[in-house]
Amino acid sequence: MAGDYHRGEMDISEQAATYAAFGKMTKWGSLAVSVLLLFITLLFCTPAGFVGSAIAAIVLLALGVVLLREKPAPAH
Question: What is the pLDDT of residue 9?
């Protein structure tokens, strides 16, 4: 039974895809939580009001999308 295993012969494409998907969900989920936290904090803890809170949250969302999007692979 132990002789059936051969190192490096297992197909790991599913594990690699799961790892990549987890990284993407973590990245975009963190952005969503931070935008929501900023909006709620400014709405309830400062005199910024709804409009000010929404503007700040939209700015953070736009910056996050620009900075976190996938970079194109370098062509060699």
Answer: 80
